[in-house]
Amino acid sequence: MGSDYCFELQMKVRDYECDLQGIVNNANYQHYIEHTRHEFLLSAGVSFSDLHNRGIDAVVARLNMSFKTPLKSGDEFVCKLRVAKDGIKYVFYQDIFRLPDMKCAIKATVDTVTLVNGRLSDCEELNQTFAPYFT
Questions:
Q1: Residue 81: which domain range?
Q2: Burial of 53 by CB count in 10 Å (0-12 exposed, 13-18 middle, 19+ buried)?
Q3: Which residues does the annotation mark as catalytic?
């Protein structure tokens, strides 16, 4: 893992994720980075569903993806992330690299906010959980 990243998850492209051009459909990259964020939470001891059951909902406020190199069926890749705090937002910087050549497939920035009992709010629990990872 590079020094900027605090978590990574390896995956493989499945046939049905590709479009007629034989490359991963752009919407599937959003699935990859979301799955990586959820796995990151679990690795930090946080269950997304448990948060929801306690009235804490982390939601995407903004998503920006820059497509660099397309992935194809059967490609293995690694999704890496780092997280920063900006006001009440948690900003996830997520990059996907094709394996084994580490060619960048996408660069993404995901701004998330938390709703606590339905109200936009800072979340002390997540602040404490993420504090060791903030860049």
A1: 7-133
A2: exposed
A3: 19
